[in-house]
Amino acid sequence: MKKLYWNPDTLNYLANLIDANGFAHVAIRALEFVEENCTTEDGETTLDLFADLITQVEEQIEKEYYE
Questions:
Q1: Could you give the CA distance from residue 53 to residue 11 in angstroms, rounded to a whole number?
Q2: Residue 2, domain member (yes or no)
Q3: Burial of residue 43, with CB atoms counted within 10 A of its CB: 0-12 exposed, 13-18 middle, 19 or more buried
Q4: Model confidence at 64, in pLDDT bands (50, 70, 90)?
Q5: What is the pLDDT of residues 5-38, one digit of tens each?
Q6: Could you list the residue range(s) of the whole structural domain that residue 45 is in?
Q7: pTM strictly above 0.85
Q8: Which residue intervals of 1-67 are DSSP H helices?
Q9: Integer angstrom CA distances of residue 62 from 26, 49, 54
Q10: Most distant pair of Cα atoms in the chain: their distance
């Protein structure tokens, strides 16, 4: 699957949730965001969008905390 564009504010918001609530909370919020705010296209599924979003959030977390 191709890498999708996500608003940097969305990625930062979700990445910052890890400090107070842990990764499980981040994943729940990311799934809620996809279900409530995204529309699938070209054979994509909600799971595809969630997987791409959570991967990019993980990359943001790693960038902020480990670099």
A1: 8
A2: no
A3: exposed
A4: confident
A5: 999 999 999 999 999 889 999 999 999 999 999 9
A6: 8-66
A7: yes
A8: 8-37, 46-66
A9: 14, 20, 12
A10: 36
31 with 50: CB under 8 angstroms?
Answer: yes
**Residue at 47 is within a domain:** yes
What is the residue type of 36?
E
Place of tokens 């990019």: 56
Read off the tokens for 37: 């705010």
Residues 64/15, Cβ–Cβ less than 8 Å: yes
- Is residue 43, in this structure, part of any structural domain at all? yes
Number of domains in the chain: 1
Is residue 45 a part of any domain in this protein? yes
